[in-house]
Amino acid sequence: MAALGWLTSSKRSATARSVLAGEASAEAARKNSHDLVEPEAPQEPTEPGSAEPEFPVVGDERAAAFFDLDNTVMQGAAIFHLGRGLYKREFFQRRELARFAWQQAWFRMAGVEDPEHMQDARDSALSIVKGHKVCELTEIGEEIYDEYMAERIWPGTRALAQAHLDAGQKVWLVTAAPVETATIIARRLGLTGALGTVAESVDGVYTGRLVGEPLHGPAKAEAVRALAAAEGLDLARCAAYSDSHNDIPMLSLVGHPYAINPDTKLRKHAKAHDWRLRDYRTGRKAAKVGIPAAAGVGALAGGTAAAVALHRRRK
Questions:
Q1: Omega before 56 cis (within 30°)?
Q2: I want to staple 33 with a disulfide (CB 3.0 to 4.6 A). Which of 23, 102, 193, 296 is the partner?
Q3: How far apart are CA 39 and CA 167, in angstroms?
Q4: How many angstroms from the chain centroid is the CA of residue 139?
């Protein structure tokens, strides 16, 4: 029964599917990170003020930073921008585009993740890519980033990530978006890699199923936990950044949690637990900010193959 230990562990509150999704994402992220090349030129971070503590700690190789993507690093949701790009390339019809557009508009206005909207978008995306080759979607993902995502990166959050990179630390995206899309964004921003939802593929073709479940909520925490163990990181010395209360499990894992553009529930939780906050939507600065940021600073094949291999080993 030892082989079923991952299903019966009493040490974690996440579901078994969350654990599987997290571990598959961590394995895919580590494999894909070796292929991330030609990052954008580093951007100069703002000089810290005299009252700011020195963070991140330069040279601390057991520390890393984990950034949520949607509304934290990028305005809006990556999966909706992906949908727009796929529609442009005639992957689906106008009726489905209207649903994507409505979901994106709601997300932008509300600033929070609606589980039903996000699940509907993921189900739509899976049905759209089923039967398509992994390499085809990867190539298209590069084009979609340039068309819809590049101009939506929050400069302030980008500066926070660069501060960790300049300190010699690894920086990972952690998102419910497809791991291939997340990996493209990470590479374009010069980050270490990305943890994302892993779609199953067989012989390089999508099956229309996920490995585990979407990397959302508790599954994100499991992915970060698994990656930290594999990388030899000390989570107490790591930082995590997110806008959503859904990511409280991930934020609670690390010693330096940050609420970025927080929704109402996360703002309340952050204040109650003395977490640091930063809001780039209005330019207002919360009371506790540990890293200065300037408003003016402006893969799928490997991932799915790793995930399927992991899934088969679990069996």
A1: yes
A2: 193
A3: 17
A4: 20
